[in-house]
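Duplicate of #3305? Posting structure anyway:
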């Protein structure tokens, strides 16, 4: 993310077009090298001039503007700065910042394979369980191209490593010699609650050009039902285990049982795991492309790691605690999801500006 030390500007409202928001952010954020000799008062006057220009543009007319401009840690221009508004995708700034603060930029999410008995002579005597760890990036090989998008100018913006079902299968077969599972292949999504949906979401988000998949603690391909992203998975965990079963069978592994939902026993032993890229890359990806699904997973992940359970409610409580500990006023903050798709979220320009300033200082 590009750094600006002079000012942070946040503005949105009931604009008729997302272009109004983009214009305000692009016009209003002045780089550190511009007008460095201006006083704070002059800086505020110039931002006000830009604000009036942007607010007069057609996409912005009829909106409710909210501005909070920070310069060297001081507010130099404000307008409706404490008014609670619908943040839309700026909600992701709250979630990703809290995730970095609480988990650390090097944190990796692990998807584990466990069983009651070890691999003996190539065989697991009993069921084997695929245990989700809230990794939003676990994918099939055919889906990894999603993470290789080209940014404007042709630069590839990508996560450096995408954990795949096929790599997990290779580890079990080639590295550990698995040839037979004498039982079921079980999918364990219990790190998160069973809610697939968020309050304030519209049903259209999962029709046509799908905005977000179903949520799960064990998910594959962003909760989508096929590698092309044309459908939503009814049960992401069951689909992940089914993909693993197919990958193992393609590598010659015999599975006597079926694919089923369940929960690993506390006494089960870990056989192997596959981990995500560092959190800092997932956060960059989420914010760069305004990716909805990772933001939702990160919010539930905060609840799982620090809030007593992987729910959105618990994650929201942890998020507020993390921001409050960084001296950000969260009294009027309403967090109903991580992506900003919910129409029930509320945040003020002042909160968003201070969160963005915190993120840029990391």
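Output from current build:
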């Amino acid at each position: 993310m590009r750094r600006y030390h002079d000012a942070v500007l946040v503005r949105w409202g009931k604009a008729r077009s997302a272009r109004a928001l983009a214009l305000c952010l692009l016009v209003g954020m002045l780089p550190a090298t511009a007008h460095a000799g201006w006083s704070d008062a002059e800086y505020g006057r110039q931002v006000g001039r830009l604000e009036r220009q942007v607010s007069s543009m057609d996409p912005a007319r009829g909106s409710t503007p909210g501005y909070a401009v920070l310069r060297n840690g001081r507010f130099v221009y404000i307008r409706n700065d404490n008014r609670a508004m619908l943040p839309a995708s700026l909600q992701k700034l709250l979630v990703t910042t809290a995730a970095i603060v609480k988990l650390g930029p090097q944190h990796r999410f692990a998807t584990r394979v466990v069983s009651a008995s070890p691999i003996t002579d190539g065989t697991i005597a009993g069921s084997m369980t695929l245990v989700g760890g809230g990794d939003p990036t676990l994918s099939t090989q055919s889906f990894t191209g999603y993470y290789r998008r080209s940014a404007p100018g042709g630069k590839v913006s990508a996560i450096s490593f995408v954990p795949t079902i096929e790599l997990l299968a290779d580890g079990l077969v080639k590295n550990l010699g698995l040839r037979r599972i004498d039982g079921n292949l079980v999918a364990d999504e219990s790190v998160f609650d069973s809610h697939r949906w968020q309050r304030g979401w519209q049903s259209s988000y999962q029709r046509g050009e799908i905005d977000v998949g179903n949520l799960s603690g064990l998910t594959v391909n962003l909760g989508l039902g096929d590698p092309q992203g044309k459908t939503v998975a009814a049960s992401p965990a069951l689909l992940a285990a089914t993909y693993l079963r197919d990958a193992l069978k393609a590598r010659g592994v015999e599975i006597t049982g079926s694919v089923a939902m369940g929960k690993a026993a506390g006494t089960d032993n870990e056989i192997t795991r596959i981990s995500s890229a560092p959190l800092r890359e997932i956060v960059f990806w989420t914010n760069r492309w305004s990716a909805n699904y990772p933001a939702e997973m990160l919010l539930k992940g905060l609840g799982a790691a620090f809030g007593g359970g992987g729910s959105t409610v618990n994650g929201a409580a942890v998020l507020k605690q993390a921001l409050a500990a960084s001296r950000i006023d969260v009294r009027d903050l309403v967090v109903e999801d991580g992506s900003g798709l919910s129409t029930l979220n509320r945040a003020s320009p002042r909160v968003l500006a201070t969160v963005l300033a915190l993120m840029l200082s990391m």
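Confirmed duplicate; merging threads. Confidence is low (pLDDT under 50) at residues 1-29. The two ends are 11 Å apart (CA to CA).
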